Amino acid sequence: MRVLYIKTYKTGSSTLAGILRTVAAARGMHVIDPGGDSQVNRADWQADLAAEPAGRCFDMVASHTQRAGWQDEALPGATRITIVRDPVQRALSGFYHSRRTPFCRVLCCSLRSTRCKGSLGDAACTAAGDALKLRWARECTSMHDAQLAFMVLSADEGGGTSPVQAVSHYDLVAVMERFDESLVVLRHVLGLELGELLYVKAKSLPHNYTYNLPGGEGSTSLPPVTRLLEAEELPAFKAALAERNRLDTEMVAEANRRLDEHVAAIGKHVVMQELAQLQELQQQVLIACADAAAAARTLGRPGYDPWNDCHWRDNGCARDCIANVRQLNGV
Which of 69, 68, 46 has the alpha carbon at shortest distance from 58? Predict the structure, then answer.
């Protein structure tokens, strides 16, 4: 098995990467990981290549990486996989995530909340916050049709393909809004066991989470930002995001159409049956492994932290706890 996974941003990609890394670990596959940067690139592959015995092959890329020609050299004949998300939902997630993380290059963290002298609920502060959202939508170009740009070769390498053609270049384009269903299809594409699809979500926060900006916690001059439900979001903000993601919108529609084709080819009744089985197992994982106290009780290991038991960074966490769920269910 050889897998080229183009890991996009804010699409559920870290959760899917964790599943793929679990598969790689179980099979002794050789994964190319990034060096100092968060994205794996040609230099990382060449550095790994120089450090390996002659003839050693590579089996997987599972970190953030933009589609590039070197990947075909590193992983000849690989199954190509990626994941996409409704672009407005993705951009909303990106905006709020940028309120709390250092990923400024991708998510434009430099566009912080506007200082105001009133409290968070004051009309003037609300207006300032709304203005910031519109500015972010305009100026954060890394969130403009970025899924398509990440999935195709650059113009220098013959890229510039249409959204429909971009999807056709992959063996599977998973869809975040159909995540578990996509996993069932992935099982058939790669020949996996159902138990290999179990996961805990990476980077998951409730919709009403309050983001305290660096240096701003407890301060009235830098008010915190609370994530809203989509229905509560500023309509002009969502409209501005949609306007700047027309190609991504077309591509996600094509990804859904292709996913429907995969489901039909496998057999919808088979997919629905396996989906029900997967979701039943996932409910067990949620109860047993999704927080440290529950996971420690499940394993009988005081102090066990599922978020420190990961394959790579925050990808593929709660390894021992999920393995226990698999063992109890014989999957």
Answer: 46
